[in-house]
Design brief:
Blueprint (H helix, E strand, L loop, with lengths): L15 E3 L5 E3 L3 H19 L5 H21 L19 H15 L9 E2 L4 H24 L6 H21 L7 E2 L7
Antiparallel strand pairs: 1-2, 3-4
Amino acid sequence: MIVLNKIYTKTGDDGETALGNGARVAKHGMRVTAYGTVDEANAAVGTTRLHAEGTLDARLTLIQNDLFDLGADLCRPDMENDDTAEFPPLRMTDSQVARLEAEIDEMNAGLEPLRSFILPGGSALAAHLHVCRTVSRRAERLAVELATMETVNPAAVKYLNRLSDWFFVAARVANDNGKADVLWKPGANR
């Protein structure tokens, strides 16, 4: 159980923070940057939910919970010691990725195929979903970079990859099932 009685601890005043295993690392380290960007994506989803309702809002709630799971996963290095850890770490699973894929397929089924790239925008909801898409894509790039240096759960990277796709398709749905998408017109302003 998590108990937060005091919000500031002063333990990070020297530019370091604690990972999930207790190790102290620089706040600018790649692992902290990766899970910090996941947290930023979660905040973007929270703002997006101000414009969502019904099934989409319920799905965004699931995504927010998944993003906390993902942050917990990324802040806990040393996957090879998971089985012997005093407190088993929370790891992303392939079933979370599969859920996103099923939702993408369901949303995409009612959309016309794209004939152009889409400019981020349209409705307020779609614009916010595009912000979520770009922040989650940045989180993915950082997690991939982290994986070149340290062990990262492959399901975490897959989840971030599918998540940005999910936001893209959801933005099209939010734009009247793609009818209100703002299409890119190459060279239009020359």
